[in-house]
Structures are given as C-alpha cells and as structure tokens.
Amino acid sequence: VIPENSDIVIFGASGDLTYRKLIPALYHLYVNQMLPSDFSILGVSRTAHSDEEYREKVRASLLKTEKTDPEKLAEFCQHVGYQAINTLDCDDYGKLQQRLQEKAAQSDTPRNSLFYLATPPSLYDVIPASLAAHGLNDESTGWKRLIIEKPFGYDLETAQELDKKLHQHFKESQIFRIDHYLGKETVQNLLVFRFANGMFEPLWNRNFIDYVEITAAEFLGVEERGGYYDNAGAVRDMLQNHLLQVLAMVAMEPPSAINGNAMRDEVAKVLNSLQPLSDEDLRQNLVLGQYTASELRGKELPGYREEPGVSEESRTETYVGLKAFINNWRWNGVPFYIRTGKRLPTRVTEVVIHFKKTPHPVFGKDAPDNKLVLRIQPDEGILMNFALKRPGAGFKTQEVAMDFRYDELVDSNVLTAYERLLLDAMGGDSTLFARSDAVEACWRYVQPILSFNQDPHALFGYACGTWGPKEADELLARDNRAWRFPC
Ligand code: BG6
C-alpha cells in the first residue's frame, strides 16, 4: 500500500544517520515506486544551504554509497529541499511552518508531515515543543507524526521525563520510537517462525528448551562515534534496545493479532517479567569488557581508549555479556545468555535455541544436542542441527544440519530496516515501533548495570578480534555450557 502524500522533514539533515541510512532508504523506496506520487523530503539543520546545494550533497552521498540510475537519481533529487533553522530557537520554526504551508497551498489534497528526529538526543524534547508552538502537531489538516531515534532517554528517569514532555504536545498515536532491529526482516520472521509453525511452538518453553543465546557481534570499533559512544557504552547502545527487543520476539506469548496494541501488549508483558538484576547477579552473571589494542591480520588496531573522542581513562564498556532469566510460566529457570560487543572477530547477529537432551542417552552422552540457529544477519537464514547415525557399523552419531538461506528465495524484494519502518510510519502502523511501556521496562531492567562499569572490579579488557573477555566464557562454563562461536 502506497502511503498518502507526505512531506518528510528530517531534522539532523547533515548527520551521519541521514546520509547513511535515511536518504538511501528513501531513494530505494522511490525507485521501487513505494513512495506517494506527491512527496517531498525537507532537510533541516542549522547550516545555511540553498535547496540546490543540499540536493547536490544528497546526490553525491547516494552516488558514493548506492547503485544508482542517473535518471531516477535526478528525479528523486527534485523532491529534495532544505530549510536552515536554529533548532534551539522556537521562533525560527516559523520558517519551517511557512515552507510546509507553501507546499500545502500548491496541493489539492491535505498534506501530511513526518518529522524525523535524526538529531542529538538533547533536542528530542525541544523540537516537538517548537513544532507544536507553530501548530505543526495539529492533525486537522493531515496527519503529523514524529519518528524518534534511540537513545530514548539516558536512564529510566530521563526516559519517563521525555515521554511526559512528548505527550504534552503529541498523542501516542503520533509518536514512533524507532528501533531499527524491529525493522529487520529476520527479526520479524521470529514471529512467523514461532506462531505459524505448529511444529516448533509446542516445544518453545522450559520443558524442552535448555537455554537460549542471543549474540550481536560487530567487527568494527566505535569509528567516528567516540564522542557519543563514550557517554553511552554497549549497555545503552545495544542491550537496552536492540537486544532486549529481540529477546522479546523470542520469548513473548502469542499475540491475539498482529497489530500495534496486541503485539506491543505481549512485548511489554515479557519485558516486565525479566528477573531484576540483584547485586549478586551483577557480580556473577554480568561481564563488561573494553577492547584493547592488538594486531589483527597484520594490522595494528587501536584500543578503545585511543579512539578519537574517547577519554584516555574511559571505563565505558564496549562489550556486555549477561545471563538473564524471565520469571513467567513459560520460561522459569531457562537462562538467556546475551552478548554484544565491538571489535569482536566478525559481524554476526543470531539467536540460538538449545533444546534439552533426550531423557535417556542410549547412544552415549556425546550424541549431539538439537540446536536451532536463527541467523538475523548478515548471512540471513535458519539452521537446524540434529543427530544422525554415522553410516557404518554400530550406532555412532554425528551432527548434521538443515539450512535455509534467505538468498535462496527468488523474487523477494527484501526491504532494509529503515525502508520498512519509514513506510510503516507513513502508513500509521506502529506495530514495529517501541511503545513507552516496553522502553521503560528495558530501562528498569538495565538500570542496575548502568553505573556498574565504575566498580573497580567490573571491567575486563579484551584484545581486538577476540570474542570478548575470558570471563564471558566462564559465565557459561560454570553452567557446563559454551557460547556458539559463529565464524
Ligand atoms: C546502532 C548502534 O543502533 O546499531 C551502533 O548505535 C551499532 O553502535 C548498530 O553499530 C548496529 O546495527 P546493525 O543493523 O548494523 O546491526
């Protein structure tokens, strides 16, 4: 369904997110004829640019990162404009209001506005209040929606304050809190895999599942984002949002329907059932790490403290490994081992479901266990491991696999996360956006960890290109288990 005519206003128009993710996503939607016939993209930031200058920047960045068709690119750029405003000065938003009014005056149908806040979080309450002061929250002349990027708050208290401020000017139905992991096809497929296959769902509980691993590993370090990252760390950057949302998809109860309310009720319920982390959990079931300089494949990689924008004495974690429990009927006692880190050996995100052994080991204790590997990225697919009788005499077993890969699907136009989420927001579908109760449940859960990296015994070093501190291996080894190392 093509969304209605809309103006897409991007605050933070010169930022990294805009050029790396938003503009390419909008370009692909345009090329695939998924944007309305009458749409515009208006970049907004402080720097003075003419429409033409900004268009040129957009064009150059698309040429650099995407495969483009010259004709389509030229057409697309005709929809792009620019408005410089001082986002801290409420009066200045009058210029934006005027731009949008001019567009509305040229149009036969009511125009809708999607305001994308791709700015530093310090502007998340300022921009909506200033938009509202100019009536740009008023839906009597077309819908007005806000997309807000993570981090949504800095901790539980600031997240609650921000939510209160947003609700002074915008209704919940106008607020779209983006978590781009929910836009990933493979994350959404967790729901179809679980709730459309009668074969798996009966086994999806504490009676049959031994433990679950959730891994989001990155090879890259903090790159140019040291300034932001040093105030965030892996817990705020990845665990509080992306990883806990994935956990919710793996662990939630079946919703009565796939819509914004039914889905998000179940997500909030499971996140609220996470067992709170006690002081003992922080010492026993949590591992924080920071990458240190090392040579990898003949290249010297700097340690985290040597990265630009990072303090030389920084205690910010670039790795977090955690054993979590969900206190409900389905999952009681099943550990969820979660880890994420920068400068690990490779980029991979996956969920591994380890099934319990059969009750009596007739083929010996070494017979392989059943594992289901849900590969979120980059090698998207689903792998099922099971035991096979090794051909020949006797009953020796070996592990074999059934493997489905997304790239085997012919004819499928897989949208990137940002493409999908931009379309959903324009279509008014909030199913794949985080609701404030879930965001707060995640903050409540990670809150005890947020300052734990300051504890003198809490932060371990790990060399670039390794799977994190050895203490993270011990977290599982203590339970006679081991991480899967997906290389
Ligand atoms: C972002 C984080 O939200 O997600 C980054 O701020 C991280 O630090 C990125 O690299 C990972 O996203 P993806 O889609 O590449 O797994």
From TrEMBL:
<dbReference type="GO" id="GO:0050661">
    <property type="term" value="F:NADP binding"/>
</dbReference>
<protein>
    <recommendedName>
        <fullName>Glucose-6-phosphate 1-dehydrogenase</fullName>
        <ecNumber>1.1.1.49</ecNumber>
    </recommendedName>
</protein>
<feature type="domain" description="Glucose-6-phosphate dehydrogenase C-terminal">
    <location>
        <begin position="191"/>
        <end position="484"/>
    </location>
</feature>
<feature type="binding site">
    <location>
        <position position="342"/>
    </location>
    <ligand>
        <name>substrate</name>
    </ligand>
</feature>
<dbReference type="GO" id="GO:0009051">
    <property type="term" value="P:pentose-phosphate shunt, oxidative branch"/>
</dbReference>
<feature type="binding site">
    <location>
        <position position="237"/>
    </location>
    <ligand>
        <name>substrate</name>
    </ligand>
</feature>
<dbReference type="InterPro" id="IPR001282">
    <property type="entry name" value="G6P_DH"/>
</dbReference>
<dbReference type="GO" id="GO:0004345">
    <property type="term" value="F:glucose-6-phosphate dehydrogenase activity"/>
</dbReference>
<comment type="pathway">
    <text>Carbohydrate degradation; pentose phosphate pathway; D-ribulose 5-phosphate from D-glucose 6-phosphate (oxidative stage): step 1/3.</text>
</comment>
<comment type="function">
    <text>Catalyzes the oxidation of glucose 6-phosphate to 6-phosphogluconolactone.</text>
</comment>
<dbReference type="GO" id="GO:0005829">
    <property type="term" value="C:cytosol"/>
</dbReference>
<feature type="binding site">
    <location>
        <position position="46"/>
    </location>
    <ligand>
        <name>NADP(+)</name>
    </ligand>
</feature>
<dbReference type="InterPro" id="IPR022675">
    <property type="entry name" value="G6P_DH_C"/>
</dbReference>
<keyword id="KW-0119">Carbohydrate metabolism</keyword>
<keyword id="KW-0313">Glucose metabolism</keyword>
<comment type="similarity">
    <text>Belongs to the glucose-6-phosphate dehydrogenase family.</text>
</comment>
<dbReference type="InterPro" id="IPR019796">
    <property type="entry name" value="G6P_DH_AS"/>
</dbReference>
<dbReference type="InterPro" id="IPR022674">
    <property type="entry name" value="G6P_DH_NAD-bd"/>
</dbReference>
<dbReference type="InterPro" id="IPR036291">
    <property type="entry name" value="NAD(P)-bd_dom_sf"/>
</dbReference>
<keyword id="KW-0521">NADP</keyword>
<feature type="binding site">
    <location>
        <position position="218"/>
    </location>
    <ligand>
        <name>substrate</name>
    </ligand>
</feature>
<keyword id="KW-0560">Oxidoreductase</keyword>
<feature type="binding site">
    <location>
        <position position="150"/>
    </location>
    <ligand>
        <name>NADP(+)</name>
    </ligand>
</feature>
<feature type="binding site">
    <location>
        <position position="184"/>
    </location>
    <ligand>
        <name>substrate</name>
    </ligand>
</feature>
<feature type="domain" description="Glucose-6-phosphate dehydrogenase NAD-binding">
    <location>
        <begin position="9"/>
        <end position="189"/>
    </location>
</feature>
<dbReference type="GO" id="GO:0006006">
    <property type="term" value="P:glucose metabolic process"/>
</dbReference>
<dbReference type="Pfam" id="PF02781">
    <property type="entry name" value="G6PD_C"/>
</dbReference>
<dbReference type="Pfam" id="PF00479">
    <property type="entry name" value="G6PD_N"/>
</dbReference>
<feature type="active site" description="Proton acceptor">
    <location>
        <position position="242"/>
    </location>
</feature>
<feature type="binding site">
    <location>
        <position position="180"/>
    </location>
    <ligand>
        <name>substrate</name>
    </ligand>
</feature>
